[in-house]
Amino acid sequence: MWSTAPLGPGERAATAKADLLLGPVSIPAVSVQPVRHRFSVDDYYRMAETGVLNIGDHVELIDGEILEMSPIGSRHAGCVNRMAAMLSAAVERRAIVSVQNPVRLSELSEAQPDVALLRPRDDWYSAGHPGPADTLLVVEVAETSLAFDRDVKRPLYAAAGLEEMWLVNLLDGCVEVASGPEAGGYRRIDTFAAGAAVAPNAFPDLSIQVDEILP
Questions:
Q1: Which residue ranges form the domains of the chain, and what is each CATH number?
Q2: If the chain, 215 residues long, is cut into consecutive pieces of 10 residues, what is the mean pLDDT of each piece?
Q3: Which of 70, 117, 118, 150 is deepest in the core (most CB within 10 A)?
């Protein structure tokens, strides 16, 4: 049992002496860092199966994080439709034109590029989403998402080994063509403005006018 009786003269003197000898006692602050959990592609699909994610959710799995995608404006949508129609007519049966469908980049990332050119496959990828080896070209159309597509998605595509990425920059009216993937990004980025023509590396015969891509 604790005593609440006041200290006597001798006890007070002993306590004061101890304070002088030991000095004030400080308890060091403990720094606790939050643990960041990254989701795998399997986790991502389990969340969809159990209703944590809804079918209508406009999200992507980027480096283990589930990110809400920017709303698609009419200029963005029109540009995607135009690109898909032009590429479909140009490649015919030499490639599959996939529009806003998943491409599995790694165990922690599954992006949904606006347009992708895929290697032909008999099942049209119904047995599984395409990966980097299946993907000849990815196209991202950027307006409000320009910084994210440049600084996050383009390096992610490069790290996954995707050979070529086009960034249709609606703000500046140009197409940025990235090629030569490395771990830190693409070795080469060329910018094509109105009046120029671009062609996928996989199909150099397909010359597309930038004026026909931009809205």
A1: 72-213 (3.90.1570.10)
A2: 50 51 57 75 90 84 91 94 94 94 96 97 97 98 94 97 97 97 94 96 94 92
A3: 117
